[in-house]
Amino acid sequence: MMLSRPIPTRFFGPLLGLIVFASAPVQSQQQSLKTFESQQYRFTVQYPADWRIEGPKRFVIYNFPQSRAVRGLVIPPGGAGIYVLVPPELTRGRAEPANLNDWVTLGSEHKKINGRRTLRLDRSRRIIAVVETTSSCCGALPPDLEMIEWFFEVDGRMFLAGVEYSGNVDVASLRDTLEHIVASVSVTRE
């Protein structure tokens, strides 16, 4: 799996939503995988077996044990979490996005965007076009929360996968984990 050279695009508005995570070291991708299945939104995703999943209905994973979890709006330094969302989880009664640009707009409502680019995730059987945004949040509540979010489509379905972290983390390893997760997303049929 390899990302091709980024194609720069223009700046886009702030992102929506905040998911809270806490501290622990990032783990290597050389490990076994588990599979999450959303029966409600009909997709599966594979993730590192040493990451902890939040619950049975929503794909949110953490790189730390439950005993290190912190309640509130701050991720302690070194903390990270990864999530995969679909439009109904963010629309809250509004119309769902008609295309990927609308999806980025919806997901970009309430965050300070630091950058945006287009990537191509090149897999052996498929190529996934990704719009990546990087952002930060909550400067009034140190430490700042940094985010990398990937907006993409698989089999005509839109997804948002993101990693949120704070402090000194191995960002390259987090990006690699995000890439593996996005590449594993599969739409299930009823």
What would you say about this model in short?
The protein has 190 residues and is mainly β. The chain contains 3 helices and 12 strands; from the N terminus they run E-E-E-E-E-E-E-H-H-E-E-E-E-H-E. It has a single domain, classed as Protein Transport Mog1p, Chain A (3-Layer(aba) Sandwich).
Task: Describe the model.
The chain has one domain (2-187): Protein Transport Mog1p, Chain A, CATH 3.40.1000. It contains 3 helices and 12 strands. It has helices at 88-91, 100-107, 171-184; strands at 2-3, 7-8, 33-38, 43-48, 52-53, 59-62, 80-85, 112-122, 127-137, 145-154, 157-165, 186-187. The strands form 2 sheets. Strands 1, 2, 5, 6, 7, 8, 9, 10 and 11 form a 9-stranded antiparallel sheet that branches. The chain has a 3-stranded antiparallel sheet with strand order 3-4-12. A hairpin with a 2-residue loop joins strand 10 and strand 11 (157-165).
Largest sheet: 9 strands, antiparallel
What number of structural domains do the residues give? 1
Helices, by number, come to 3
- What is the residue-averaged pLDDT? 78
